[in-house]
Design brief:
Blueprint (H helix, E strand, L loop, with lengths): L2 H22 L8 H13 L13 H14 L4 H24 L7 H13 L7 H19 L3 H17 L1 H18 L9 H15 L1 H9 L3 H15 L21 H33 L6 H19 L3 H7 L1 H12 L3 H19 L4 H8 L3 E5 L2 E5 L1 H17 L6 E4 L3 H7 L16 H14 L3 E5 L11 H4 L1 H10 E3 L8 E6 L5
Parallel strand pairs: 3-4
Antiparallel strand pairs: 1-2, 4-6, 5-6
Helix pairs in contact: 1-4, 1-5, 2-3, 2-19, 3-4, 3-7, 4-5, 4-6, 4-15, 5-15, 5-16, 6-7, 6-8, 6-13, 7-8, 7-9, 8-13, 10-11, 12-13, 13-14, 13-15, 20-22
């Protein structure tokens, strides 16, 4: 691959992401999921430690975001989105490089269609780290397969370890994919390191790559305990996400959905099926080819052995967001397969993949939602003007009013369970560690959180009284019943707001 082609692909990636950012960078706001990332980035800028000081994703993405935001001198939502967009651009660039290298002279139009297809699936905004990490894994495993030397085993291990610093689940997927490929490389092996040698170099690399977390555990007080407690809690709950029913295409109810929504739901179900079919068939095929000494695209091998681990991510909570996060081995694998086909096969199928991707994902992108609804309103958020849903705008106004009335000097408040972005919006420190309390918590944990609330002298509380996924056991009063009762005992309820699920309480006046 020539330097000229690499440069052109990089320019194409920048162009596509820039167009997307111009269209929807200033659109939409999630005080829940996006706010969870935003708050963490703000606190890291102030010297706090992810996982230890507040519930968070893995530290890498926070330190990356905080570094860029600090460089820009801005802790606002648009600074965060800019940092994420740069990471997204790198992901798209690597993905297009992988597709381009399958042919000596790849069609530029094909790369453009591929770029549009991949970008359509880059959703939601706060999970673009995860999507890019999945692409990086495909790239680094392709790098190993092309020439499996001891040096490359080590570099692959370092990369997998470093990726785990940004997301331990991706580290696990990378480990599974790496070990599978290590075994595959040793089928009819004629050159390169032996199995044990390659494994040893790879393990050494993983340790080096994961060294930032290891050092944090050794040098940062209480970080190791918080990190281990998080793993224990994950094991005790038995799942990484709150599961949802799988939306198989035969479950689509055409009687209650519009034709467009029904068609979209069918395509979503077919993509869930496609992930499984691609995983099984591609693994079987690349193994069979290896046994028969037949060449196969290194990137196709990488996508094959990563597709099954990432199917776990897609099915762990079977909604459009997790489907998007788990689909990139499938998408890149399909685009590689199609790129080598005859024109009459390649173009109809790649255009079908592109159009169905846009059909499925466009409805979820905030820019398209505002464009279709014509109902979004402009509101100022951290010095930037955003187009948001009127309900979000009302919530922002209410939060600011409550802060002005009850915490005019920066005092503490609590917002639970779906509003971690409220702290980021108002630039306040959460009085509790669990800023997104959507899962049941132990008695000991809740008592510790109450002690933090009392020490912070919380002045008002916002409780979103909503049963997540329609499950009553996931309503806040049930997942955190001790904290909820503490609020009932020490706070008084204020009149209802325009949002019927938002319950507001102010601290009772203490009498001597």
């Amino acid at each position: 691959m020539t330097k000229h082609l690499v440069l052109n692909i990089f320019i194409l990636a920048i162009f596509i992401i820039s167009i997307l950012f111009i269209f929807e960078g200033h659109t939409g706001l999630s005080l829940g999921d996006e706010g969870f990332l935003w708050y963490g980035a703000q606190r890291v800028m102030l010297g706090e430690v992810p996982i230890r000081d507040f519930m968070s994703y893995d530290p890498g993405r926070y330190y990356y975001s905080a570094a860029l935001m600090s460089f820009w001198g801005n802790n606002g939502i648009m600074a965060l989105r800019g940092a994420v967009a740069i990471f997204q651009t790198l992901g798209l660039f690597i993905g297009l490089l992988l597709i381009a290298q399958t042919k000596k002279k790849q069609n530029v139009l094909y790369l453009l269609v591929s770029a549009i297809t991949l970008t359509a699936w880059m959703f939601p905004r706060h999970k673009l780290f995860d999507i890019s990490l999945s692409i990086f894994l495909i790239g680094i495993l392709t790098f190993l397969i092309i020439n499996a030397t001891s040096r490359r085993y080590f570099i692959t291990g370092v990369s997998v370890g470093l990726i785990a610093v940004f997301g331990r689940n991706h580290g696990v997927y990378g480990v599974v994919g790496s070990l599978a490929i290590l075994l595959w490389l040793n089928i009819n092996r004629t050159h390169g390191p032996k199995l044990i040698t390659g494994f040893a170099f790879w393990v050494g690399g993983v340790v080096i790559g994961y060294l930032p977390i290891i050092l944090m555990g050794l040098l940062v007080p209480d970080f190791a305990d918080a990190f281990i407690d998080g793993i224990k809690n994950l094991i005790e709950t038995g799942d990484t996400n709150l599961p949802l029913p799988i939306p198989w295409p035969w479950r689509v109810n055409f009687t209650i959905l519009s034709l467009d929504s029904a068609i979209r739901a069918v395509w979503v179900g077919l993509f869930f099926i496609g992930i499984i079919i691609f995983s099984v068939l591609s693994i079987f095929w690349v193994v069979l080819q290896k046994f028969h000494h037949k060449p196969v695209s290194p990137t196709l091998v990488a996508t094959s052995f990563l597709s099954l681990p990432y199917a776990h991510l897609a099915f762990s909570r079977a909604d459009i967001s997790h489907l998007a996060q788990g689909s990139f081995p499938l998408l890149i694998g399909c685009l590689i397969l199609l790129s080598t086909q005859k024109v009459k096969i390649k173009w109809p199928l790649v255009l079908l993949l592109c159009t169905t991707s846009l059909e499925i994902m466009s409805a979820s992108h905030p820019g398209w939602q505002c464009y279709l609804s014509k109902q979004c309103v402009t509101i100022e958020i951290s010095g930037s003007h955003l187009l948001v849903n009127p309900n979000i705008a009302n919530d922002v106004v209410l939060l600011r009013q409550l802060a002005d009335q009850y915490t005019p000097e920066g005092q503490s408040f609590i917002a639970a369970p779906f509003l971690p972005g409220a702290y980021a919006l108002l630039e306040r420190k959460s009085p509790v560690r669990d800023i997104y309390p959507i899962k049941p918590r132990s008695l000991a944990f809740q008592k510790a959180e109450i002690e933090k609330m009392q020490a912070s002298n919380v002045r008002f509380a916002i409780i979103i009284d909503l049963a997540l996924d329609g499950r009553e056991e996931l309503r806040y009063r049930n997942t955190n019943s001790i904290i909820y009762q503490h609020i009932m005992d020490h706070f008084e309820k204020l009149p209802s707001t325009t949002n019927p699920t938002m319950l507001i309480y102010k601290a009772k006046v203490k009498t001597s």
